[in-house]
């Protein structure tokens, strides 16, 4: 295995034999797929060292369209599967992919606990503020007033602010990017993957078929890059909270928050000090003897 | 004539009074004297107050169950003095603190002795809290029945060691004074004796959940993710206690959905992984169980049943989840279900489940229940054959196997003759692969093609044919031919075993039992043969609708003649089974009383 690790990693490594996407023409998922591949190539991560875990939804089909280890799980459930895999083999680079309904709605409980748990997982939320695959209902990130088949009078709930949730729940890396800017997206994803700990990337993307409000133009008129401002410090929580509140006329994108140096969950688990669980022998004469000895405690 | 080494004792009190710890400690003191012990705890869903008891049964021969009637009650509070009035045999007695006011009339009417002692006063005199009257109580019983004090002081020393020498000495002094006083006041009139048996082999007393964990560790389980839920919590807690020693990662999750999914994520990387829950948590795991089925991920789930539906009776026992477990999750997929009924079987199933899960790449569910999860029983150390267990990973591909692969398109779900595909785990350059909860091609990519759907469905279901040959037939206890043939599953075995023994000891009628441990795929042919060859059959089900009865009808195509059921949250006892059998079988020779409440569906005749 080690000899392949030093081979250069190319876009072709991630493209070879991959399926053709089934997304609608113009869907933001195409550029997200491209950015994910570019980020992985930039980071020189060969496909066999990466495990991508997805949920269910348009965005969650993404891993099918590149050559990578994938466990395509249940709606809302990418994070616990990813966490289990990471804990069992922390030598793998683990990336979870979900949509906004998947990640923030049905999977909301896993999301907030993953944030405070801090496993070394990158979580990409493909956020189009809509349930696309079920054909256009409102999602947890839909803005107030958003009209859909299930909110015919307009959505009367407030939208989830992913960045603010991340900050409140103790995520060690919180970023937002836009499917309309592949370069920024690639950079942001690479920063997230490099981060040692739980990193969440809220990717703003249009749903060209069902969301006629939050279009490429809508986003373009609002987003600005926080990291362009040299005085912005993503480790300064006071500054970061100000940015986190912004949503509407102006929407900040970039690495909004990063806390370096916090130990990950895996870093703190005693049994992982010996290396990945997946590499440990299932049994041994020592284990058998210790188990025999354990019986004495019940005498 | 005194009864020697044959005694049942109930220790009763409120939560927080040390009922359970006293019971466990006392049981060990008796086991170390070479006696066979069965211990059962009965508790309410609260941390303080309420009413709990621990029942200890001692015997010179192995015992598998509690009895309805007891000889003595060790009452830690006023309620427990009266609570078991109808369960104490004539000549038995109640030991309690003399400050408790007791009306002697109902006890005298039943020839039950009142045995008051200054237990609290003794505890306080030796520097103890009031709660240490429980130590005095144990001392008193032993003094009364002549059990050597050394066994008590040894256990006290061991149990209180970490609290320091002062606590140890104070407890020993409390126990000794009560021992001597009870001996002086009550030993002469006592009809019971407990005597150590010299040269007995060393025995351990784990409970069912600990036995499952012993099995899991022996099989190389390295991962458990779980959410606390009675009565499965002790599986998780025990693995937490020994996890570092055995390299097992234990993860408490935000809910049971995450618990099963983390275990699946871990299993996907090749680690032997499990989760443990009860019916409520299992309800939440149902969707993921189906994902284990379609992604062919090996997984072990321990489902420790308690009384449902919903929150039900959270600290009481039932066998109500078998059919739910069999059919849980949408669509069809293969699964294996094991229903152990003894500590030995809990160990065996706890270990074997991991081999079965990996060989057939499917979820294996072990059904136990609250009763079995907390019972303790003396068993020989070699009852858990740790050394004899062999890990079998089936078609698991090691790095060395994968190095030899030609090309780089490894197909996780490739079609094979037996339906089992060679299994790689992520991390090898020659096996970059995917799997999905959607229907998929051999290479794990999503498809909606009818022909592929048929192939993959048939491939998955075919695995059960191979698995079936790997499973054990129903286990016979008793003579091959008998007047009454019982069927049971899970923890009912112990009580039924004793009921069968008592019927056969009567010499007036014969009985045998078949205990189904390897429950699914169902041993249809064997069960049909047993029913066809039996004079009359009775199915025992710890539930209202007859889970096992329905399986026999549905999958063996036979209608057993009778059912005995119990759904009051209490475990079957030998007396319950015998009393209900008498209602079903004309000329049944035993007249046995049970203390159970009457229930409408407790006995049924089907044909």
Can you put this structure into words, describing what you see?
- The complex is a heterodimer of chains A (299) and B (607).
- Chain A is of the alpha/beta class and 299 residues long.
- Chain A is 32% helix and 17% strand.
- Chain A has helices at 2-5, 11-15, 28-42, 78-88, 100-106, 108-117, 162-168, 182-194, 216-220, 237-245, 285-295, and strands at residues 50-54, 69-72, 93-99, 121-127, 130-131, 137-138, 173-178, 199-204, 223-225, 251-258.
- In chain A, helix 10 links the parallel strand 9 (223-225) and strand 10 (251-258).
- Chain A is globular and about 70 Å long.
- Chain B has 607 residues and is α/β, with parallel strands linked by helices.
- In chain B, 38% of the residues lie in helices and 20% in strands.
- In chain B, strands 7-6-5-2-4-3-16 form a 7-stranded mixed sheet. In chain B, strands 11-10-12-13-15-14-22 form a 7-stranded mixed sheet, with helices on both faces. Chain B has a 6-stranded mixed sheet with strand order 19-21-20-23-24-25, sandwiched between helices.
- In chain B, helix 13 links the parallel strand 14 and strand 15.
- In chain B, helix 1 (19-31) packs across helix 6, helix 4 (119-125) crosses helix 5 and helix 17 packs across helix 20.
- The longest helix of chain B has 22 residues, at 165-186.
- At the A-B interface, strand 2, helix 4, helix 6 and helix 11 of A face strand 9, helix 8, helix 9, helix 10 and helix 11 of B.
List keywords for this structure.
heterodimer; A: 299 residues; alpha/beta; 8-stranded mixed sheet; two-stranded antiparallel sheet; 11 helices; 10 strands; 32% helix; globular; disordered N terminus; B: 607 residues; Rossmann fold; 7-stranded mixed sheet
- Stated plainly, the CATH topology of chain A is called Rossmann fold
Please name the CATH topology of the largest domain in chain B. Answer: Pyruvate-ferredoxin Oxidoreductase, domain 3
Specify Rg of chain A, calculated over alpha carbons: 20 Å
Count, helices of chain A:
11
Give average pLDDT of chain B, whole number.
97
Secondary structural class of chain B: alpha/beta
CATH class of chain A: Alpha Beta
Strand content of chain B: 15-25%
- Low-confidence runs of chain A: 1-5
What is the general shape of chain B? globular
Strand pairing plus helix content of chain A: what structural class?
Answer: alpha/beta
Proportion of residues in helical segments of chain B: 25-40%
Please trace the helix and strand order of chain A, writing H or E for each element. Answer: HHHEEHEHHEEEHEHEHEHEH
Helix content of chain A: 25-40%
Main sheet specs of chain A: 8 strands, mixed
Q: Name the CATH architecture of chain A.
A: 3-Layer(aba) Sandwich
From the structure provided, what is the oligomeric state, counting identical versus distinct chains? heterodimer
Strand order of the largest sheet of chain B: 7-6-5-2-4-3-16
Specify the biggest β-sheet of chain B.
Answer: 7 strands, mixed
């Amino acid at each position: 295995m080690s000899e392949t690790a030093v081979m250069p990693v190319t876009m072709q490594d991630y493209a070879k034999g991959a399926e053709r996407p089934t997304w609608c023409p113009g869907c933001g998922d195409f550029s997200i797929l491209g950015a994910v591949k570019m980020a992985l190539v930039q980071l020189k991560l060969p496909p066999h060292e990466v495990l991508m875990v997805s949920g269910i939804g348009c965005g969650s089909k993404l891993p099918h369209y590149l050559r990578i280890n994938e466990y395509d799980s249940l709606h809302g459930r990418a994070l616990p599967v990813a966490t289990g895999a990471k804990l069992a083999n922390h030598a793998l680079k683990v990336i979870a992919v979900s949509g906004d309904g998947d990640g923030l709605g049905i999977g909301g409980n896993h999301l907030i606990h993953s944030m405070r748990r801090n496993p070394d997982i990158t979580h990409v939320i493909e956020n189009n503020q809509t349930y696309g695959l079920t054909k256009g209902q409102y999602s947890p990130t839909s803005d107030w007033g958003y009209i859909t088949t299930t909110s015919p009078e307009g959505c009367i709930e407030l939208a989830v602010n992913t960045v603010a949730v991340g900050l409140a729940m103790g995520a060690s890396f919180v970023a937002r990017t836009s499917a309309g800017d592949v370069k920024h997206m690639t950079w942001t994803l690479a920063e997230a993957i490099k981060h040692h700990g739980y990193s969440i990337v809220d990717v703003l993307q249009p749903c060209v078929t069902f969301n006629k409000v939050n279009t490429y133009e809508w986003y373009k008129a609002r987003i600005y890059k926080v990291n362009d401002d040299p005085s912005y410090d993503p480790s300064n929580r006071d500054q970061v909270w100000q940015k986190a509140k912004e949503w509407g006329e102006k929407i900040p994108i970039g690495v909004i928050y990063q806390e370096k140096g916090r130990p990950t969950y895996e870093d703190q688990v005693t049994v992982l000090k010996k290396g990945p669980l997946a590499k440990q022998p299932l049994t041994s004469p020592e284990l058998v003897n210790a188990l025999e000895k354990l019986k004495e405690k019940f005498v | 004539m005194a009864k020697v080494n044959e005694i049942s004792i109930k220790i009763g009190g409120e939560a927080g009074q040390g009922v359970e710890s006293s019971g466990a400690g006392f049981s060990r003191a008796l086991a170390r004297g070479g006696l066979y012990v069965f211990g059962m705890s009965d508790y309410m869903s609260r941390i303080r107050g309420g009413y709990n008891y621990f029942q200890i049964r001692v015997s010179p021969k192995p015992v598998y169950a509690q009895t309805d009637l007891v000889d003595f009650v060790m009452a830690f509070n006023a309620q427990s003095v009266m609570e078991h009035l109808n369960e104490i045999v004539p000549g038995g007695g109640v030991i309690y603190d003399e400050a408790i006011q007791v009306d002697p009339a109902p006890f005298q009417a039943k020839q039950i002795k009142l045995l008051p002692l200054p237990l609290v006063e003794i505890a306080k005199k030796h520097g103890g809290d009031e709660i240490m009257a429980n130590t005095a109580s144990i001392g008193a019983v032993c003094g009364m029945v002549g059990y050597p004090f050394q066994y008590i002081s040894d256990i006290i020393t061991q149990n209180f060691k970490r609290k320091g020498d002062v606590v140890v000495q104070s407890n020993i002094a409390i126990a000794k004074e009560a021992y001597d006083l009870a001996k002086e006041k009550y030993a002469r009139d006592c009809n019971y004796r407990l005597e150590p048996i010299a040269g007995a082999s060393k025995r351990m007393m784990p409970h069912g959940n600990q036995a499952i964990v012993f099995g899991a560790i022996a099989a190389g389980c390295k991962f458990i993710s779980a959410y606390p839920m009675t009565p499965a919590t002790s599986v998780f807690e025990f693995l937490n206690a020994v996890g570092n020693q055995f390299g097992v990662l234990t993860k408490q999750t935000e809910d049971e959905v995450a618990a099963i999914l983390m275990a699946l994520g871990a299993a996907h990387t090749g680690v032997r992984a499990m989760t443990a829950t009860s019916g409520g948590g299992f309800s939440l795991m149902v969707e993921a169980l189906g994902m284990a089925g379609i992604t062919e991920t090996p997984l072990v789930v321990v489902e420790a049943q308690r009384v449902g539906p919903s929150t039900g009776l959270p600290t009481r026992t039932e066998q109500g989840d078998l059919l739910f477990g069999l059919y849980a999750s949408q669509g069809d997929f293969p699964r294996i279900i094991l229903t152990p009924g003894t500590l030995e079987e809990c160990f065996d199933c706890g270990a074997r489940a991991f081999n079965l899960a990996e060989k057939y790449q499917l979820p294996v569910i072990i059904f136990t229940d609250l009763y079995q999860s907390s019972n303790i029983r003396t068993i020989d150390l070699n009852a858990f054959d740790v050394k004899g267990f062999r890990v079998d990973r089936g078609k698991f591909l090691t790095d060395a196997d994968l190095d030899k692969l030609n090309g780089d398109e490894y197909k996780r779900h490739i079609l094979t003759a037996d339906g089992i595909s060679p299994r790689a785990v992520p991390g090898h350059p020659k096996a970059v692969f995917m799997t999905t909860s959607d229907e998929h091609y051999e290479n794990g990519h999503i498809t909606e093609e009818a022909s592929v759907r048929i192939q993959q469905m048939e491939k998955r279901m075919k695995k059960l044919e191979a698995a079936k040959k790997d499973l054990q037939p129903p286990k016979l206890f008793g003579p091959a031919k008998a007047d009454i043939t019982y069927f049971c599953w899970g923890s009912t075995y112990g009580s039924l075993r004793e009921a069968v023994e008592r019927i056969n000891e009567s010499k007036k009628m014969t009985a045998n039992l078949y205990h189904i441990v390897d429950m699914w795929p169902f041993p249809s042919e064997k069960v049909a043969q047993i029913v066809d060859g039996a004079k009359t059959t009775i199915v025992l089900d710890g539930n209202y609708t007859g889970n096992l009865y329905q399986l026999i009808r549905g999958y063996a195509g036979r209608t057993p003649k009778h059912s005995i059921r119990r759904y009051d949250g209490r475990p079957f006892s030998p007396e319950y089974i015998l009393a209900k059998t008498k209602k079903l079988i004309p000329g049944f020779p035993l007249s046995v009383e049970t203390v159970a409440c009457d229930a409408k569906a407790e006995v049924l005749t089907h044909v």
